[in-house]
Design the sequence.
């Protein structure tokens, strides 16, 4: 396997896991984050750190594992001017959830300075990120796929090849987020509705997970409600952002998405209730609060 | 195994399948339906027919596989007065989707004439009904479970024992229908939203079914959209009924279910567009119509 020099920008739960996976695969891996604590944690794992401006020139691949389009933009064209400093022929992997239009724009701007762009949103959560077992919804030039190949291999279990230019990767991610966000909200609505009818949350999980009403998100998140455990694996705040992107794109295409809009309103209410930093399963608390239900508490 | 004498009332796709499964298991099985064609079809399969008033006295078990509470009520207490004619100690299995309160009322009225009632809504679709592989969400007296046991064995792959009185079976079914109905509508919203972003329906199915956005309903119904095949396995008309029951129960408990309400509005629009008798995957046509998308057509 070719040993690459790579950097992960953004060492949150997803980025740190991806950086670890790159290290484990033998790549020279630099980590960057606004939080020096996070960088220090990565260095403790054997990762490298430094000044991005100095290091950029030697990188084969840069992964942007930041929150959104604004942060992606800021890293590439803001103060650090990463785009100007990257080596000709290197590849930028954009992992944030962004609009397909933004991804196409990034590809154009990278191309203008001789850099390939891979539109490559990620899915799977922090656990799979740490294990190098993400799903990556990727589109971009054959050259971008070729150069980035060893990094994709190191971080992902499944790489979907969705086309030879930027856009489809982000489009598929938006579709996935629409469904994932609606399914979490539907789980929260159903598990609390069940409680009003005498169905206990653990019975809900046991039965519905074996029935036609199940979803990946239900099986993943309902256990958090059953256990009363709202430590954030993925927090409520993600969803107004991601469903907002979905609705922005939808609106621009004249597409009405009323179920997504109904789900978004639930996440916004959760944030108004001060639940933003909790696990997104805390959406059940919105319904419980409205109806006066007692959700299971955390086991001592 | 004990050979029982049983009747299935309502020989639609679910009832006919269940009646066939009872026959196959060696039970003496009578079939009843308002449509004489359906009864004739069952007789061709080896089933029995006759006058319900005459036959009621010899039955061990009666399954009511009708559309809703009104039809259940009509069969038991309407012109045929089934309840008055049933043998002391026989068991009525109520399979329609009804409110828990209605199920409790049926149990009371059966008990008053010495008959046990099993609150036993079914799930799984026509295919599983035909194969004797349904899921049954059942609650009722131990005696109801005992007498009905051989019939449950003949028709179901999974029987959930949800308690020793009527109510929990119907409550769990309502929870399942909430989720199933929302998930079909979310699939329709997502697959057409994807099309506006250049994601083809077959690509949607390939990728999302492997991602966190998947659901049982998505994997079951999205292929209908991909194939342009709207022959009804389960029709649009089911959902205003079932989601209406969910919202009625929710309302009676002071529970606000905005995502369910948003999904219900989509089914109502589908019916207003004349799609009521099509497969419920035809909900995608509502979105396609609104946005001017061309869904895949049926292969010639």
Sequence:
């Amino acid at each position: 396997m070719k040993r690459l020099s790579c950097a992960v920008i953004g060492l949150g739960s997803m980025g740190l896991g991806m950086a670890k996976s790159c290290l484990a695969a033998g790549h020279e891996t630099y980590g960057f984050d606004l939080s020096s604590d996070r960088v220090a944690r990565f260095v403790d794992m054997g990762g490298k750190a430094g000044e991005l401006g100095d290091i950029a020139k030697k990188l084969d691949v840069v992964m942007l594992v930041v929150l959104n389009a604004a942060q992606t933009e800021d890293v590439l064209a803001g103060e650090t001017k990463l785009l100007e400093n990257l080596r000709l022929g290197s590849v930028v992997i954009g992992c944030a959830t962004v609009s397909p239009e933004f991804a196409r724009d990034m590809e154009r701007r990278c191309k203008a300075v001789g850099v390939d762009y891979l539109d490559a949103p990620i899915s799977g959560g922090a656990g799979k990120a740490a294990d190098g077992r993400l799903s990556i919804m990727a589109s971009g030039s054959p050259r971008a796929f070729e150069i980035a190949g060893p990094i994709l291999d190191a971080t992902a279990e499944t790489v979907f090849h969705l086309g030879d230019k930027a856009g489809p990767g982000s489009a598929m991610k938006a579709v996935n987020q629409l469904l994932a966000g609606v399914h979490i909200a539907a789980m929260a609505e159903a598990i609390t509705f069940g409680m009003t009818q005498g169905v206990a949350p653990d019975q809900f999980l046991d039965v519905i997970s074996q029935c036609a009403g199940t979803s990946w998100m239900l099986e993943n998140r309902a256990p958090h409600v059953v256990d009363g455990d709202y430590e954030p694996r993925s927090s409520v705040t993600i969803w107004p952002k991601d469903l907002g992107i979905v609705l922005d794109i939808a609106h621009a295409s004249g597409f009405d998405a009323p179920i997504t809009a109904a789900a978004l309103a639930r996440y916004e209410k959760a944030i108004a209730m001060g639940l933003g930093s909790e696990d997104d399963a805390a959406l059940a608390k919105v319904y419980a609060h409205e109806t006066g239900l007692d959700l299971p508490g955390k086991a001592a």
About this structure: Chain A has two domains: 5-165, 171-291. The mean pLDDT of chain A is 95.
